Every structure is written in structure tokens, then in C-alpha cells.
Here is the input.
Amino acid sequence: MDTTRADDTLPAVWPEGFLWGASTSPHQTEGNNLNSDWWHLEANMSSIDRSGDACDSYHRYEEEMRLLAEAGLTAYRFGVEWARIEPDEGHFSRAQLAHYQRMIDTARVLGLEPVVTLHHFSNPRWFTDDGGWTDDRAVERFARYVEFVAGILGDVRWICTLNEPNVLSMMTHLLATHVRPGAGVNAGAGGGADSEVPAGASELDNGVFPAPDEEIGRRLIRAHKAAVKVLRQRTSARIGWSVAVQALVAAPGAQREFQEVRRVWEDLYLEASRGDDYIGVQSYTSRIVDENGIAPQPDHPDNTLNGWPYRPDALGTAVRRAHEVTGLPVFVTENGIATADDARRIAYTEEALCHLHAAIADGIDVRGYLHWTSVDNFEWGDWGPTFGLIAVDRETFARTPKLSLAWLGSVARGARANP
Ligand code: BGC
Here is the structure.
């Protein structure tokens, strides 16, 4: 297959310094995240897959970064795992911090701009056992962790405090139910194990959308602000957070519900980012809001591997909306598709980028595009949906780049700024 970019469909002129990269998260790729709440959630729920060794990226990150850089990409988003840095409350690991310092250094040496996320869904187990994000001490605890991690962030240019606080705010109760002492296989009725599917990304798979918990959301906003305060003192990075923006559309007659869903799901978090340096936009699909809230997605042959509608146009809508609410420069920190058909991944991404380009042409300041994701990874309880630009053999951990990586790399290499 020809991986050369078709200039007549995707314009070659992009903003000066535009970053092209791939995004990952620690729990989904590193493996053996033993002190995290997700590890214990997986152990307590036989109905979901376990992360196990994941992609062994904890040891193989350099190979992964090298493949991205050699393809032509210029940025790499990865996360620092709180459960490794602070495996017990107040016990901080300098050795683990040094590991993430090496990741930052490796990205730099390979010519990739590191984009560092400080929290991507998983928490230390002790934190969730002791109330997690349902407890007001969470803000102080998170800020203390950020203070420690700030030690390696001095010359990092892009920091994301929390990944998708709007999804985290609905995941929190599930974690509390299944991870805290007393939850687990012997917990009895209502105790939690095996009673539900996880309220993470997988929850979106079956089209069931509990509303994000607003009280938790407001606590996450306070945690974000506390982190920003620490990071402003300790770094000169551009600081923001990443919000899941779903390109919501109102069904006829559901305007009132639409406004409310948009407020609780997205605007709360977008508005809270005013004063930050950028807003991270994570876009995959579009959803209809009817009188009952976000409508379940009916089966359709075009749906992606995790059941989401195939909507590459969602990226343009999401970017415009995020910019309209925040007034901030936008950084696309995730966009991608779960598919086993790599040609479809390329088609989706090309169309999404055309919509992104149109938003830029309309005057929106967009700083970069990070594809979700580099390696096929653990999709929060499910190894099925493959989003990666690189395949991974889960026994040998051998990485095999897909054509979509070469294609995206060629887009990045071909991109030029206006003279
Ligand atoms: C998350 C990722 C997830 C992806 C696809 C986003 O919600 O940040 O962790 O794998 O979407 O579901």
C-alpha cells in the first residue's frame, strides 16, 4: 500500500511548530501496576480482562519512542503513574521518579517533545481504599504527589494534570465499590465484584452513560487548580488538562436535556480550564442527546470495535466547542479509532485531520495532534479494541509498526508552515 499522503485531500500547510505525535497512558501499557486501584479492580472482577504485563512498556518505552520518531513524529505523550511514585501514603519512590526522568530524556534524545500526564484514571490503591476522589483529602494528596513529581518537570514544556476528569468522575464510584476493603469476590450482595462492567472507557462501549458525578468533578477541578499552582512555581511548562469532548448533538425537542448534558459532561471542565495555557481535547465520536440523556448507540456495521459510531468529523466539532468555551489554544491530546483494519484507521485519521485543518483555517489556534495511541494496549478491562499505530505480540512483546504509523509519519514530515 502506498503510504504517501494525498495532498489534494489533506492540506500540507500547518501552523508553525505544530506537534505531531502519539499518546499513551501508564496503566494501559507499562504492565504490573501492582499498587494501583485498577490492578485490584481487575483482580476482583472476573468478567473483565486483566492488564497483567500489559505491553511491558515500562521496560520497552525506548523502542516504542524510537519507532515513532523514525516514522517522522515529533511528540510523545505518556503518563507518570502515581501508584508507582507513591505506593504507600507518604512513601515516595525516588527510583521510580528517575524512571520517568529517563523517559523524558529518552524522548528528547530521539527528537520527540515529551507531553507528560500526571494522572490517567488509575490511582494508588491506598488512595482509593481511603476514599479516593470521594474524599476532600484527595486534593491535598494529589497536590503533594504533584509537588514530588515536579522535581523532574523543570524543563518539560507540556504538562497535562489530569486526563479526562469528566470520565474519571464517573469511574470513581466503581473503583470505590470494587477496590476498597470489603469489596471483592467475597463481598456479598451489593459488595461489588462481578456485578457490573467497569465505568471506564468500557462503560462507553455498551452505550450506557451514567452522568459524571458533579461533586467529584468539582473536587477534580480543585485538584487541577492545586496542581497548576504547584507547577507554575516549579516549571515553565504550558499547563492544562485534557477533557473528553464528544461532539454532542441534540435530538429534535431535546434542547433542554442537551444543554444540561453538555454542562455536566463537558462545560464544567472546559470552563474550569480558563486561566490554563491550553485545553487538551480528546475526541473519538459523536453522540445524540435525547430526553433521557446520551442515547445508547444502536448496533451498526460502521461502529468501531468498541461500539462507537464512526465519526471522524467529531474532531472538528470538539475542537471548535472547546475553543469557544475556553478561548484557549487547543492541543488534540487524543484522537483515534478501535479497529483491526489499519486502512480504516488511516481513512478515519485522514478525515479527522481534514476537519481539524478546517478549524485551524477558521482561526482556531491548535498546537498539535497526538494520535491515540502508539501501541495496541489494555483498553480498561478489554484487550479487544485495538487503537494502536503499532501492534504488540503479548507473549514476546515484539512491536510491529502498522502502515498507519508510516502514513501519519509521512503527514508529519510533509507538513510545512506558511512562509
Ligand atoms: C482515554 C484512554 C482510552 C481511550 C479510548 C480515552 O477515554 O483517555 O485511556 O483508552 O479514550 O477509549
In short: The chain has a mean pLDDT of 91. The pocket of beta-D-glucopyranose is lined by residues 25, 28, 163-164, 167, 201, 244, 282, 334, 372, 379 (CB under 6 Å). The longest strand covers residues 238-244. The chain has 14 helices and 13 strands.
